[in-house]
Design goal:
The structure holds two protein chains of two kinds. By secondary structure, chain A is an all-beta fold. In chain A, strands 2, 5, 6, 10, 11 and 12 form a six-stranded mixed β-sheet that branches. Chain A has a four-stranded antiparallel β-sheet with strand order 3-9-8-7, with no helix packed on it. In chain A, strand 10 and strand 11 form a beta hairpin. Chain B is mainly β. Helix content of chain B is 0%, strand content 51%. Chain B contains no helices and eleven strands. The chains are: A mainly beta, B mainly beta.
């Protein structure tokens, strides 16, 4: 069985602060994919990143960065210099390569960025 | 724009009534997925289609639920004899196949009174 845990239910930061969203996963598969999605107040889930289990290289995209560590089964997401527009619920998700895009999502972390 | 349109955006119904949701993805993506999201939770997989074939159904999809994708284009999700526990956001998504990223629609919110 697969499981994704996002222990942080809600985080509040002031604009320009850095914030890290934690994601811990469980799977018996050796090959799998990890994802992050953003769900703004409008409700539409927005794809942010996909990472396969063989690629532990960290990735940076603008103010966003991701830290994948197989040793701790974690795939954390950092927003640098947060902005009000980053306010949303962020979901981490997992799938193995044999199940198409049947994703197992975590419960999400609500990020509130204030001025 | 994720290329997935869902209709209606919000449906309020009384317990016991039937409801149907429609999903229209842009044509070139052959895989279509339905997920359900309840308040405070992440989306949960319900079912998916490759073209017109329904390839997998979650155990969450009781026999009151049926999904179709005639001709591999739009898809419908019907819930018969709705129950209050069916209240949720029903999300449709498309993908290019494999374990590609999912592109979600804005969802259809169901409220069962």
């Amino acid at each position: 069985a697969q499981k994704v845990t996002q222990a942080q239910t809600e985080i509040s930061v002031v604009e320009k602060e850095d914030v890290t969203l934690d994601c811990v996963y469980e799977t018996r598969d050796t090959t799998y994919y990890l994802f992050w999605y953003k769900q703004p107040p409008s409700g539409e889930l927005v794809f942010l990143i996909r990472r396969n289990s063989f690629d532990e290289q960290n990735e940076i995209s603008g103010r966003y960065s991701w830290n994948f560590q197989k040793s701790t089964s974690s795939f954390n997401f950092t927003i640098t210099a947060s902005q009000v527009v980053d306010s949303a619920v962020y979901f981490c998700a997992l799938t193995n390569t044999g199940t198409a895009s049947k994703l197992t999502f975590g419960t999400g972390t609500r990020l509130q960025v204030t001025l | 724009d994720t290329g997935v349109s869902q209709d209606p955006r919000h449906k309020i119904t009384k317990r016991g009534q039937n409801v149907t949701f429609r999903c229209d993805p842009i044509s070139e993506h052959n895989r279509l997925y339905w997920y359900r999201q309840t308040l405070g939770q992440g989306p949960e997989f319900l079912t998916y289609f490759q073209n017109e074939a329904q390839l997998e159904k979650s155990r969450l999809l009781s026999d009151r639920f049926s999904a179709e994708r005639p001709k591999g284009s739009f898809s419908t999700l019907e819930i018969q004899r709705t129950e209050q526990g069916d209240s949720a956001m029903y999300l449709c998504a498309r993908s290019t196949g494999g374990t590609g990223e999912l592109f979600f629609g804005e969802g259809s919110r169901l409220t069962v009174l």
